[in-house]
């Protein structure tokens, strides 16, 4: 297999006495969707926060583009090409949908000069914002205030903002949570279309979506990796079936 | 909408420009003072209204620039505006950089407290060391001169010329800030105020933005302080004190945070009201207690106009600005 673009090695995160992520290693490849599944509280979001720089790992390394991201600030990691979306919608509620994306796209263009040029006049930034909105299917809502969007639309905007920064690695934290079937379909299609040029880490509870797009699966329980492999390997894994998949499927999957 | 605002601005500017032809000297000087405070209030609004940084130490910059001018001026002669103004602003920028590196690591109540603390430190530096001339302060016997090749460009000793000089600066500061806030930098600031965490995840080095605006804000407060020292002809530690910081904060809140014209309006109303309410000819012995009436007015505005006086026009400026 080709070299991974991102390699997390023995990552751990402790909050006082609680170990939220324990010795987790993981690889992301361009052209692949790596799904991260596991029950609530398994440490999936914490792992994402470690990769994105929102949290600093207690131990371990994150090898990416020849550097170790562990301990680096979120803004630097973002500029190196890692983009993330949040599980809890994290957008600028008072701004228009377009401005949310425009601001995201603007972050890629931080030139000290032209400080007096109107922000809305940078066509390259506008174009990137528009493209991101179109990709998630929100183009028609560009002038709405973000707070006025439906929950599902806010989730779409969340992803659009991530795309507008044009990352190479996408960390998507439950992108489908709270979306209707039609919106979900759009996002699943979007993830598929992004796969070729990106390395994607997908946290998702919707198993149909996960098995529809994932090339690799990692199952986390209690902060640790329970199993990792191709979807069929993981599906066949008895431990996983007992601990997670079978149970949840039986109890009516979310 | 855009052109309507421009026309309105031009009319206001014209009215102000014509005022010295009809107004008495006292009033011309009063309005000049108001305009100086408008610069001061706009500079603070950059922090409070646009960046979510409530500073209670903004007088530090105002006073610092005044003291720099006072210290640079020869005892009985005029200082050169060409050198004293840039030096005063540079001192403010340096002070902002130095303190900003520390205070900007805090937020909320802590930010209020540490900005206050730094301002008080500066207060005592000028109050208690030979640097400042004690509680009496330092007199400026002549206003700085704007010389070019041996001839004076503007006779700033003339109250009208000084008025127009200040008017030009207010207008320039207003336009410059309007442009800046509408550009990438301003948009990023408003984003940081709204959701700093998300801005960082999007790749913004938010600390640098905050440091940038803190320095700009400090320099503009310094410009106001320089002009004020020029107008009053003396500096004393009061201009650095927390009363001054509190007053300018009230101006911003009164006028409406997050709008430049609101901050300017707040300065206007505050100074004029202060002038009226403390007028003994009108209010007799009650005039001594003008702060009581002022307090009631501020409470009323806070209760009934949460967006400040600028909210009266029904404008939702900030939202418009961020509206793609």
Overall description:
The complex is a heterodimer of chains A (254) and B (324). By secondary structure, chain A is α/β, with parallel strands linked by helices. Chain A folds into two domains: 1-81 and 168-254, Rossmann fold (3-Layer(aba) Sandwich), CATH 3.40.50.300; 89-166, no CATH class. Chain A contains nine helices and ten strands. In chain A, the strands form two sheets. A six-stranded mixed β-sheet of chain A has the order 6-7-8-3-9-10, sandwiched between helices. In chain A, strands 2-1-4-5 form a four-stranded antiparallel β-sheet, with helices on one face. In chain A, helix 3 (97-106) crosses helix 4 and helix 4 crosses helix 5. Chain A starts with 5 loop residues before the first strand and ends with a helix. With 324 residues, chain B is mainly alpha-helical. Chain B has a domain at 26-239. In chain B, 70% of the residues lie in helices and 3% in strands. Chain B is built from 13 helices and four strands. Chain B has helices spanning 2-22, 25-48, 59-72, 81-103, 109-128, 159-182, 184-201, 206-232, 242-255, 260-277, 280-283, 290-304, 317-321; strands at residues 138-139, 146-148, 151-154, 234-235. A two-stranded antiparallel sheet of chain B has the order 1-4. Chain B has a two-stranded antiparallel sheet with strand order 2-3. In chain B, strand 2 (146-148) and strand 3 (151-154) form a beta hairpin. The longest helix of chain B is centred in the last third of the chain and has 27 residues, at 206-232. Residues 315-324 of chain B have low confidence and may be disordered. Classes of the chains: A alpha/beta (254), B mainly alpha (324). Chain A binds chain B through residues 52, 54, 73-75, 78-79, 84, 86, 90-96, 98-99, 102-104, 106-110, 114-120, 122, 142-143, 145, 161, 165, and chain B through 176, 179-180, 182-188, 191, 194-195, 197-206, 318-319, 322-324.
